[in-house]
Design goal:
Rossmann fold; 6-stranded mixed β-sheet; 3-stranded antiparallel β-sheet; elongated
């Protein structure tokens, strides 16, 4: 008895030691998150961004002008020579009216704005005097304006999955989980750690909590540079202040933080170390300390006429409003402010840049793509993405409405074909054809919405280099085997025995295999169409057209298809699936009772039945191979189509 007590005490002591050790590890992680491994100073000089638009689009008579100038391009300047510098421990706020180029500038500074045929970014942007590189990329966090999450995952699950994907293999899995827990505590999310995040159709967390989760996902990599696009948009003043207080504390730990903000409250304004004010046309009006901005404009003759929020006053100036007089020449006001900026601030900045050394290196996104290295292996990406996908999709796949739908359809189908006689081959062929339609219709149209709905999530995660696209596609494909085959299996189990098909195990398994095979190929086609179009309405139109074409060439409605269009059947997966379903029940030498004028009990060969003869009961291996080829081709199309979403990593 004494020994047992000693043993139990020993176990308790071990548990206490493990718990204390875990708490110590957790504290070490939290302390590490308060500091950064590398201090980064970002400097940007004469940053410009222009886009090309079709001539004649906009203004009075734009349609006639477009017809006259439809082959010409017009250039529009979004940013006009913006300059500034932010050091570790500083929080820069980029202010300006809507459409002034705040987000464009932030995206360019974050290394996420690449040149293209219709847009060009120029200027000098350096990070500790060097160009943007993979090393800087790994130390950069970017929080977009829109909060994009999987709605059915909890706060803890979301951050843990992000940690497993983004943190390097130098950390153990347990340490990555501790990182996630430390971020949860640091951002005050412990109270809701086990609550689902929610979304547009799923009730979940508040806007402020969702915004803090977005920030937390970037804090997991302990960034030296942190970019935030409108982090307080849609939040009340209290929640916005909590976000700004958290960011100020992060800056105190040595981070360099840049954010855009539209119209902060006066209580938030003085929390910014530096202010960059852009006019409505993308020109700089002020860059400097936040506490000096009012004195600067007062020094050039612009003082608020009444007591007001400094941010409101700055936005009025950015729009060319100085006195509130309706007759005021706004363009003249903006030109005066731009001239004052060039005289009082721009020249000083240029002098500081020259004294600070050579900053002539420009950003180069291609350099990053060439030198990028993944923090974890392909297999780790695949396994984490698969687990995340299964956790999220279980709510959608096993939705009560979908289960009720498949049960209702199964019962109705079974009752309509209730114990159809094996001699009534026409009815049974109709049931098998319905199998191929049902197995192709539901998976295809459900898969259509996958990538259009996940587009923003994919852009967000791919642009941050979270995982390989190939691992993402493979995780989706593997998840399909698990999730998409359950309901079709239920459908076949119910209807097969009610419909009076051959009551042998081999025939049942063959029918089930052909049905599930059809579902997988159809689902792959749906993913390919959705990935190629990335628009739910257009994808639905294309899928409907394809399915109707496949339906007409499937061999059930028309037995004698004209030769000049008969080749379409070889592109139709439903043609091959229908053939496999027929071969799961019949052999060419099987017979059935066929009525004739002289003998009502005459028998005929199944292979001679018109609807079966057109499709044929031979070349089973060819049908299997052709469907496999289609499956692979659809996956390849999906991969190639999704390469244009977010940042492509090789």
């Amino acid at each position: 008895m004494v020994e047992e007590n000693k043993g139990s005490e020993g176990i308790e002591n071990m548990d206490e030691e493990n718990q204390s050790q875990r708490e110590l590890q957790k504290q070490n992680v939290e302390d590490m998150l308060k500091k950064v491994n590398m201090l980064v100073t970002i400097k940007f000089e004469d940053v410009t961004h222009k886009i090309k638009t079709k001539g004649g689009r906009g203004g009075p008579g734009r349609y006639c002008c477009y017809l006259l100038n439809k082959n010409s391009d017009e250039e529009k300047m979004i940013l006009k020579g913006v300059s500034g510098a932010v050091s570790p421990g500083e929080l820069l706020a980029i202010l300006g009216p809507s459409g002034c180029g705040k987000t464009t500038l932030l995206t360019a500074l974050g290394g996420r704005l690449s040149n293209g045929r219709d847009r060009v970014t120029q200027g000098h942007i350096t990070y500790n005097g060097k160009q943007f590189s993979a090393e800087v990329k790994r130390r950069t966090g970017f929080v977009a304006q829109n909060n994009v999450f999987y709605p059915h995952l909890t706060v803890a699950e979301t951050l843990v999955f992000t940690a497993l994907l983004r943190l390097p293999n130098s950390l153990k899995k347990e340490e990555k989980v501790l990182h996630a827990e430390a971020v949860i505590n640091q951002l005050g999310l412990a109270r809701c750690r086990n609550s689902i995040i929610g979304g547009r159709l799923v009730r979940g967390l508040s806007g402020g909590e969702r915004k803090r989760i977005s920030i937390g996902q970037e804090l997991l990599i302990n960034p030296s540079l942190l970019f935030l696009d409108e982090p307080t948009s849609g939040l009340d003043s209290t929640m916005a202040k909590k976000i700004l207080v958290s960011l100020s504390k992060l800056a105190e730990g040595g981070r360099t933080i840049l954010m855009t903000i539209h119209q902060p409250a006066s209580s938030l304004f003085y929390m910014f170390n530096k202010i960059l004010l852009l006019s409505s046309d993308g020109s700089s009006l002020y860059f400097g300390k936040g506490e000096d901005v009012i004195n600067y404009f007062a020094g050039i003759g612009y003082v608020p006429s009444v007591a007001m929020n400094p941010a409101d006053f700055l936005l009025d100036l950015a729009n060319g409003v100085a006195s509130g007089d309706p007759k005021e020449n706004r363009e003249a006001v903006k030109q005066t402010l731009i001239s004052a900026y060039k005289s009082n601030i721009s020249n000083k900045l240029k002098q500081e840049f020259e004294d600070g050394g050579d900053h002539s290196l420009t950003t180069d996104s291609k350099n990053y793509k060439k030198t990028s290295k993944w923090s974890t292996t392909w297999w780790q990406h695949f396994s984490v993405l698969l687990r995340r996908d299964l956790k999220e999709r279980r709510h959608d796949t096993f939705d009560s409405l979908k289960i009720g739908q498949i049960l209702f359809l199964s019962i109705i189908t079974g009752l309509i074909w209730w114990q159809s006689s094996t001699d009534n081959i026409e009815d049974q062929v109709g049931l098998l054809f319905f199998y191929s339609r049902q197995a192709g219709f539901f998976p295809l149209f459900q898969a259509l919405h996958t990538f259009p709905l996940e587009r923003m999530m994919l852009e967000k995660e791919r642009s941050s280099g979270m995982y390989r696209l190939s691992s993402y596609i493979m995780a989706k494909t593997t998840g399909d085997f698990v999730m998409e085959l359950v309901l079709p299996t239920v459908f076949v189990i119910i209807t097969y025995w009610m419909g009076g098909l051959k009551a042998r195990v081999i025939n049942f398994l063959s029918t089930l295999a052909a049905t599930l095979y059809t579902a997988l190929v159809a689902q792959s086609l749906g993913l390919a169409v959705g990935a190629f179009v990335l628009n739910q309405r257009k994808a639905g139109t294309i899928a409907t057209t394809l399915m109707l074409t496949f339906l007409l060439t499937g061999g059930f409605f028309v037995e004698d298809v004209p030769a000049f269009i008969s080749w379409l059947e070889y592109l139709s997966f439903t043609h091959y699936s229908y053939k496999l379903l027929l071969m799961s029940q019949y052999n060419p030498n099987d017979t059935y009772i066929c009525a004739s004028n002289s003998n009502s009990n005459a028998t005929c060969l199944v292979g001679d039945f018109p609807r079966i003869k057109f499709v044929g009961l031979n070349n089973k291996l060819l049908s299997v191979v052709m469907m496999a080829v289609m499956f692979v081709c659809y996956k390849l199309i999906t991969y190639l189509a999704l390469r244009r979403v977010g940042v492509t990593h090789k």
